[in-house]
Design a protein that fits this description.
Blueprint (H helix, E strand, L loop, with lengths): L1 E3 L2 E3 L2 H34 L2 H24 L4 H32 L7 H28 L2 H30 L4 H29 L1
Antiparallel strand pairs: 1-2
Helix pairs in contact: 1-2, 1-4, 2-3, 2-5, 3-5, 3-6, 4-5, 5-6
GO cellular component, one term: membrane
Keywords: Cytoplasmic vesicle, Endosome, Membrane, Synapse, Transmembrane, Transmembrane helix, Zinc
Family: Belongs to the TMEM163 family.
């Protein structure tokens, strides 16, 4: 905080820090609500994709909490540890998607149509995309790799919402049950790449 003529002014970095925290709190709120919505939709439609997307929301909640913890006490030790935790979140997401993909294909499950699932994943795609871009831009402006990395976690969440939405729509319109897990394979590759990047950043920081 800077003072000019007795008036306290918020500096640029402090404004960016507050923006980053607001973005994380918005992400937390959306995903907490989403857990209940997705649980209801998954049970109603018998959809493993919707159930899995709910688990992905848990990973996003974890990643957001890590970033809030780091932003509230920024220093090198927290940055390295936070990057490691973000990398773990990406790795868990990739592992979960791979298991889900194998299970859905092997079982040949045919989930029912879910209007609630379609509406929520469509909204989530738009909201997560906006939050991700905001986090990545704010992270670049702050020169904060942790916020940038978590922004990419949110971006994966948006892509996953889009993949689940596409799968639900294609299943509803054409009966193409396999469309959802196929789209998930692309996200697995992205999540693995980002996990490697996060772990590499952590290793480089420890060497330095």
């Amino acid at each position: 905080m800077a003072r000019t003529n007795g008036i306290t002014k918020t500096t640029g970095p402090e404004l960016l820090l507050r923006r980053g925290l607001r973005l994380e709190y918005a992400t937390l709120g959306w995903n907490v609500i989403g857990l209940g919505v997705l649980a209801a939709a998954a049970l109603g439609a018998g959809s493993p994709a919707l159930a899995g997307f709910g688990l992905d929301s848990l990973i996003e909640i974890f990643a957001s909490l890590v970033v809030v913890w780091q932003l509230k006490g920024i220093h090198k030790d927290r940055e390295a540890r936070a990057m490691r935790l973000i990398g773990v979140a990406f790795a868990v997401l990739a592992a979960y998607l791979a298991i889900q993909l194998a299970f859905v294909v092997a079982a040949g499950l045919r989930p029912a149509t879910s209007g609630l699932g379609i509406a929520w994943t469509a909204l989530t795609f738009v909201v997560m995309l906006a939050l991700a871009l905001g986090k990545i831009r704010t992270g670049h402006a702050l020169d904060n790799p942790v916020l940038r990395a978590e922004g990419k976690v949110t971006l994966v969440d948006a892509y996953l919402a889009g993949a689940v939405l596409a799968g639900l729509l294609l299943n509803s319109l054409f009966g193409w049950w396999w469309a959802d897990p196929l789209a998930g394979a692309v996200i697995i590759y992205y999540a693995v790449s980002e996990a490697r990047h996060s772990f590499k950043h952590d290793a480089d920081a420890n060497i330095a």
